[in-house]
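Review this today:
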Amino acid sequence: MKILHTSDWHLGHTLYNYDRTEEQMAMLLQMVNIVREEKPDVFLLCGDVYHTPQPSASVQTMFTNALVEIHDANPDMTIVITAGNHDSGTKHDIFRTPWKALKVYTIGSIDANNKEDLIIEIPGQGYVIAVPYVNERNMPDGFFQSLLDIVAERNKANLPIVMTAHTTVSGCDFAGHENASEYVVGGIDSHSLEDMGTGYDYLALGHIHHAQFVSGGNHRVRYSGTPIPVSFDENYQHSVSIVELNKHGEEPVVKEIEIQTHRPLVTLPKDGVATWEDAKDLLEGFPNDIEAYIRLNVEVDNFLPVEANAEALILTEGKKCRFCVINTHRLKKDRREAKVMSVQEFKTEKPIDIAERYAEDIGVEFDDDMKELFRETLALLKDEERM
């Protein structure tokens, strides 16, 4: 069984109020071409199809048109789509019946009393256990294993078994996600691999944006990552994963196919930080004909000039690039002194960095134990917010 594994399309995402439809459509076209060339048996889209639970009509139209094109590129292929934490599970469930005419299975929610809807048999090829995002409080104990046990009993021909999930797995590399920790990423608490059960040949994961095998998964547990970057800190290759499985019990063979970003996210300078004057020079010298989003990493003593954003916008006039934001880094000094931040600067700071700066200002050492206590407290506060 040959699988194309992808996730986290985040269709409808805007970047600093810039519409990204053009590059999202360019990504979808590449997806169609990959399907046409690779001819997978199964196309897995493992959650976060949309960036918001209520996408606009135009964004939904873009997705449905792309889905038809993906089907037409390989009509014999089975398409399986599960909801992520950014999606509305109901929207996926509503059109479950009509989509089946094109061999498309959309799974938005789970019913612990009707597990059959989550098990998709690919005749002569294998099984897909399609599990969408489920809040941990609503996930029955041992649910993954119960699904795997059902399939194991049916799998008399020793065919490959694939399972999907949209969650945070302990030990993953969550680089690029804001305010993330080993305990919580994107509002989803981490689960151990043991929680996912045993008996699958490949666990196709969504939610984490960096493509990777998960440590301890014996090359059977993988995040495909997002095909286009959602933030400037996702400064790594974006791709889809092609997975080949010969029979149950054998290790899968995986290759990545890079997705070219139509309008890349560029940070100036590429490494480190620059003074405001040097940053302006870099922005002014950025090629006029390159389409990109631009973030400036600027080191400041106290605060940026009030007109800094306006200056940056003026410097990009006549260029194809789009200026987005100034990311400020404060000079570290031996002596304590009051530090003034604009509201915009404050919003870009991580809570733990603000706490560390406060501790420094009052002369308290913010050691590792204190950092761990702060992270635990922050996680508890986020749990209360979700209740």
